[in-house]
Amino acid sequence: MADVFGQGDFRYRLVEGWPRVPGHMILHECPGVAVDSQDRVYLLTRGDYPIIVFDRAGNYLRSFGQGHFSKTRTHGLYIAHDNTLMVADDGIHTIQMFTPDGQKLGQIGETNKPAPAWSGEPFNRPTSAAIRPSNGDIYISDGYGNSRVHVYSKDHAYKFSWGSPGIDAGQFMRCHNIAFDQDERVYVVDREAHRVQIFDPQGNFITMWNNIYRPDCMVCWNQHIYLGELNAVGGLEAAPNQGHRVCIFDLNGKMVSRFGAPFEGSGPGEFYAPHGIAVDSQGSIYVAEVSFTMFGSRLKPPVDLRSISKYERV
Asked: Which domains, and CATH codes, for the chain?
């Protein structure tokens, strides 16, 4: 019997061989993953095929996005309630919107025209975006060259921002991912502070969850928050138990499950560098990884490593 990972009601088994990638495609690495209302799985890649789509069984459906992104810095992928895809690209400082079949719907931010670093103005290397369900407002984490969350209307008109560099409540070391729960509380991953901060839709601080190792990616599904922890900065010489795990919290901040090995790897229950996470209608978890950037590029010679895995719930 295959190994089972996790605890309690949240236990999982690796789906070997998922997905079936066409021979002419190389998944160099996958910074993001999202699942739509029909359980189609969208992989955001860093390579010649920016967005690749599979069905839940792992069969290839299509790809799109060529010419719209930087090849090395596509960063975050989000799918809205109406199946609109939003892609954050910190290499060209934009958030772009697409239909599920690849038609571009719009863009926030000017391509290759960043705001001054740490100015608080949008954008300087944005990391992720999410949509407020009740009114369509777009919330954007501007996290590498800013420490800020920006809010736009559904028509892409700027509304307001909050956050500044720092460690206090409402400040950010690196706001790396953003999500809403069913009560429209705003969850912001503050990666280098090892925490998740929670706000109301106006940006007022509510609470924070601490002691999560470099939380890097996040999705809300069925009254739970699923998080991926990035590996340690030390790379190949890092100590054990520093990142490369998946953890699941209820909405009160109680951890209900966590799995991952002490060291990085490509075996069952092992990860290199979780950077995107999604959950399908059956509760299966998809973990996208920047495995080349954080691990494979440090090998001699450099090696492309596994960058997407599926864990079915058991």
From this structure: 5-313 (2.120.10.30)
